[in-house]
Design brief:
378 residues, alpha/beta, Enolase-like, domain 1, 13 helices, 15 strands, isomerase, D-galactarolactone cycloisomerase, hydro-lyase activity, isomerase activity
């Protein structure tokens, strides 16, 4: 089998004026990402996603990957990650190289799964799961003034039993947002918070201690990703687990997080970390050092599908029959047709459980008509 074509497809969706949403760092209106379609000589098609702007992905693919990929056997995909670090030298660790690699890698795994008639998670090894616990990523900061209770009430109505909310604008407001979320979710639900790197260590520590009484499952990105000493300082001063990884790219950045014990949970984004091949390497490193793995998802339906397949394969180590922390996967609850409309059969997180597709490859079918509606290169 050989790859005969590689297409880069930028897509985007713009929120209406006045409806921007975001985190402690500010608001955004654009949902933008890039898909990659790979065709083979036997007619098999694979889909991948690069969580980066389309023009940058297209240029990176043309400059660094196309010649190597066209004519390649998709089963040789894991060699791409190795080569990205060494040829060309020094570029492999950059976010745009890793994002482009992610899309190609995911698409190749999709093809491999379809070729052998198995879902990707069965090929990645590790633990076999048929369902995951979805957690609602919600309670964003909004451009439009609205009650902070609305999004959490909607998540509970959908059946979510776990949720992550945005904080990071000051301890008093953080406490209010966490208290509100806990009251609506109930005492038994899992509640995570995301500071999006908006704090200095002492600010993060102050908030972490103030919200500890609300039983926080993890604090995500308390300080910027480029501040490892800040993570170290916070981890020494609080008991709540720390999580990070959405802004880290490739195995070597994650190795630093793991080896230096900066976090308790690593969160690779499958469309940025280097794809399924690198994510598997990251998961192996993490579980070897008894660090948890929970994928980050802020993607289209393709990136979500990759995250679901990956999460279903991650080892339960050190747990056996008794699993106190079920495998969770992030499910963004903001408006996003790139997630909801691109598939013939969209993912359904309602009811507190997310089914892992058992169809070959990623287990998804792209709605080509809907895809055309969101392309930005027409």
């Amino acid at each position: 089998m050989e790859i005969t074509d590689l297409r880069v497809i930028p897509i985007a969706y713009t929120l209406p004026d006045g409806e921007g949403l975001g985190d402690a760092r500010g608001f955004g209106h654009e949902r933008e990402t890039t898909l990659v379609r790979i065709d083979t000589d036997d007619g098999t098609v694979g889909w991948g996603e690069a969580f980066a702007p389309g023009r940058i992905v297209a240029s990176t693919v043309e400059e660094l990957f196309r010649d190597a990929v066209i004519g390649m056997d998709p089963f040789d995909v894991e060699s791409l990650a190795e080569r990205s670090y060494t040829d060309p030298y020094h570029f492999g660790g950059s976010v745009f190289v890793q994002s482009a690699l992610s899309a190609i890698d995911i698409a190749c795994w999709d093809i491999i799964g379809k070729s052998v008639g198995r879902p990707v998670y069965r090929l990645l090894g590790g633990t076999e799961r048929t369902s995951l616990l979805p957690y609602a990523s919600t309670m964003y900061y909004t451009e439009r003034d609205r009650p902070i209770t609305e999004p959490m009430e909607a998540a509970v109505e959908e059946g979510f039993t776990a949720a992550k909310i945005k904080i990071g604008t000051g301890t008093d407001e953080d406490i209010e947002r966490v208290r509100t979320a806990r009251e609506i979710l109930g005492d038994d639900a899992r509640l995570m918070v995301d500071m999006n790197g908006n704090y200095r260590p002492r600010q993060a520590i102050r908030t972490a201690k103030a919200i500890a009484e609300y039983d926080i499952t993890w604090i995500e990105e308390p300080v910027p990703p480029e501040n490892p000493s800040g993570y170290r300082e916070i981890k020494q001063r609080i008991d709540t687990p720390l999580a990070a990884g959405e802004a880290h790219y490739g195995r070597f950045e994650f190795k630093r997080l793991i080896d230096d014990r900066l976090v308790d949970i690593v969160q690779p984004n499958l469309a940025r970390c280097g794809g399924l091949s690198e994510a598997r390497t990251i998961a192996d490193m993490a579980t070897t050092e008894n660090v948890a793995v929970r994928p980050h998802v802020w993607n289209s339906a393709v990136g979500l599908a990759a995250a679901v397949q990956f999460a279903a394969s991650v080892s339960e180590y050190p747990h056996t029959r008794n699993i106190p922390d079920p495998m969770m996967v992030e499910f963004d609850r903001s408006p996003n047709p790139l997630r909801d409309d691109l598939l013939e059969s969209p993912f359904d997180p309602s009811g507190g459980s997310l089914t892992v597709p058992q169809e070959p490859g990623l287990g998804i079918e792209i709605d080509e008509t809907e895809l055309e509606a969101y392309r930005t290169d027409r």
